[in-house]
Amino acid sequence: MKTLPKFYNDLDEIEREIYNLLIQGVKKRKSNFHNAVLGSVSYDNKPEIRTVVLRDFSQKNLNIKIHSDLRSKKIKELEKNNNISLLFYDEKKKIQIRVRGLARIHKSYEPSWTKLSNWSKRCYLTSKAPGEESSDPTSGFPEKFSQDAPQNHESKKAIK
C-alpha cells in the first residue's frame, strides 16, 4: 500500500506545504503554482476568470502579488469591486488551494518592473489593451518583438 505524504493528515504540515508551493510558484516557472486562476466580478456583476502569473508571496502578511497591464479591463473592474478569488492546483500532489481576498492595485510599478525579464516585459508592449478585440488573429506584439525580447531601452515604451 502506498504511503501518504505527512501533510495529508497534519494541519501544520499542510500549511507548510502550501507556503512552500506558493514560494516555489514565485521562483520556478515550471511549478504548478506559478500560474493561478483569478476570479473577479465584472461591471455587470458577472463572474470573470483569467489565468495570472504568481509574482510574489509574503508568508508573513499572506499577500499574493500578480502583475497586470494597467490598460486591461480587469483593472477597471477591480477598482469598482475588489473582491477576488485565486485558485491554485498541483495535479501531482493533489493539492488545490482556494483563496479569497481583496485586490489592491499598485500603480507604482518600478520595483516590480525591474525584476521582470525583458521577455516578460514584452507582454506589455502590445499595441492594444489586453482583451481588446481584433478583426484578425494577432499576438498584438509589434512585429519586431514577435520572436525576440525587447532590449532594455525598448521595453521602457511599455511603461504607460
What do you see in this structure?
The protein is of the alpha+beta class and 160 residues long. It has two domains: 1-107, Roll (Pnp Oxidase, Chain A), CATH 2.30.110; 108-160, no CATH class. It contains five helices and five strands, in the order αβββαββααα. The chain has helices at residues 11-27, 73-80, 110-115, 118-121, 152-155, and strands spanning 35-41, 47-58, 63-66, 83-90, 95-102. Strands 3-2-1-4-5 form a five-stranded antiparallel β-sheet. The radius of gyration is 18 Å and the shape is globular. The mean pLDDT is 85.
Provide a short characterization of the protein structure.
The chain is α+β, with helices and mostly antiparallel strands. The chain contains five helices and five strands, in the order αβββαββααα. It has helices spanning 11-27, 73-80, 110-115, 118-121, 152-155, and strands at 35-41, 47-58, 63-66, 83-90, 95-102.
Tally of individual helices: 5
Mean pLDDT: 85
Helix content: 10-25%
Rg of Cα set: 18 Å
Proportion of beta-strand residues: 15-25%
Report, as a whole number of angstroms, the end-to-end distance: 57 Å
Q: Give the class from helix and strand content and strand pairing.
A: alpha+beta
Order of helices and strands: HEEEHEEHHH
What is the number of E strands?
5
Unreliable spans: none
* CATH C-level class of the largest domain: Mainly Beta
Work out the count of structural domains. 2
CATH superfamily of the largest domain: Electron Transport, Fmn-binding Protein, Chain A
User: What strand line-up does the widest sheet have?
Assistant: 3-2-1-4-5
CATH architecture of the largest domain: Roll
Q: How would the global form be characterised?
A: globular
